[in-house]
Amino acid sequence: MSAPCCAGQLACCCGTGACSLCCKCCPKIKQSTSTRFMYALFFILVTLICCVMMSETVAKEMKEHISFYETICQHIQAGNSCEKLVGYSAVYRVCFGMACFFFIFFLLTIKINSSKSCRAYIHNGFWLIKLLVLAAMCSGAFFIPDQDTFLNAWRYVGAAGGFLFILIQLILLVEFAHKWNKNWTSGTKHNKLWYGSLALVTLVLYSVAVGALIVMAVFYTRVNGCDFNKILLGVNGGLCLLISMVAISPCVQNHHPHSGLLQSSVISCYVMYLTFSALSSKPPETILDENQNNITICVPEFNHGLQTDENLVTGLGTALLFCCILYSCLTSTTRASSDALRGIYATPETEVARCCFCCSPDEETDVEEHVGKRGGQRVVYDEKKGTVYSYAYFHFVFFLASLYVMMTVTHWFHYESAAIEKFFAGTWSIFWIKMASCWVCVLLYLWTLLAPLCCPAREFLV
């Protein structure tokens, strides 16, 4: 490792320098991207620790293969078998430390508009110090007195934060659907091929939604029984039809000319996904057959074959879920997303149609005021003229994501029997949370369609 590279990494860990790799062949990285990547690494690290704490297999293997395991547990006063470091209570404490870490940075970075301020330097640097602070806060949570009161109170705070995180993602999903339609519709003024693109994507999405409904009707219902599943599929299928009819109704079109079937198809696909996820999370139903044996009904028959390697299924599924959570955090912390939550949108006149419409022209352009060269990966300081995303909103979303991870890993309100190996076991709390998310998403989309009719005096730019 070269001396300039070592100096750069030292500035990254203990100073205000942006973090980068020591390999010159790596493509250049923006300072704003580097910063968000480092916070994401912190989030992933703590999330992995929570998963390990909830794993019965890991605790058992460590106890069997580490001869001095009990000695270490007694030395650190974690119980004879480190019972204080495993289970839902340990996850609550670790996530409390991570949530406090991001909440403090949320307060610290409120109303930062320049990357040259003292608070901005703290946000963009001192990574080793911040890692030590995060570790200290997660460890310090184990010394909170009156643990029972703390855990009970923190559970409700976690539930509220988890619900708010879900709500923000649903709002941004609806905003995403409207933004997609508005961007591609703006291109039809200059090129009629955009009409074909709109029609093709809409047809594909509706085909996926209808196909998913049919597949769920085949595998999650039967001729006799499964009435609850039939009702849910009927209700959610009817809601998809309802929002599609409302979106193209003349009264909505008069007040909301950008409304169309593309948005409805996006919402319909998401509703079908949540319906499938909810049915998969529902506790299995059992009945007695003619031989008086318990049999499971209303679930796919091939589901039994998937249990041959539960650890593999759980590991892959958990990794995929938390990748989605991390992706949601990073995509919902852009300037456009924070503006959308405050009701600030681009005007139709400034819209430029593009296939990759998620990135605004400002976000795609590299402002190479200065390029750092430290013998390794080049760093583009793209915030010389101002911040490219809201620092405070970024930390607030990660604060809510910390609470959402805590509740998800501990099975929400079925925490006492929770384990990472039972992550995909059906529970009613997870089922109803997913179904409620589905219906809230529909209500939010309907509100964006009907709000101009209900409040004609106000201007809605969605």
UniProtKB/TrEMBL annotation:
It comes from the Eukaryota. The chain crosses the membrane at residues 37-55, 90-110, 122-144, 156-177, 198-219, 231-248, 260-279, 312-330, 388-409, 429-450. Belongs to the TDE1 family. Signal peptide: none annotated. The keyword Metal-binding does not apply. Keywords: Antiviral defense, Cell membrane, Glycoprotein, Immunity, Innate immunity, Lipid biosynthesis, Lipid metabolism, Membrane, Phospholipid biosynthesis, Phospholipid metabolism, Transmembrane, Transmembrane helix. The gene is SERINC5. Its main location: membrane. It catalyses: a 1,2-diacyl-sn-glycero-3-phosphocholine(in) = a 1,2-diacyl-sn-glycero-3-phosphocholine(out); a 1,2-diacyl-sn-glycero-3-phospho-L-serine(in) = a 1,2-diacyl-sn-glycero-3-phospho-L-serine(out); a 1,2-diacyl-sn-glycero-3-phosphoethanolamine(in) = a 1,2-diacyl-sn-glycero-3-phosphoethanolamine(out). It is a multi-pass membrane protein. Pfam families: Serinc (PF03348). This is Serine incorporator 5. It is found in: Cell membrane.
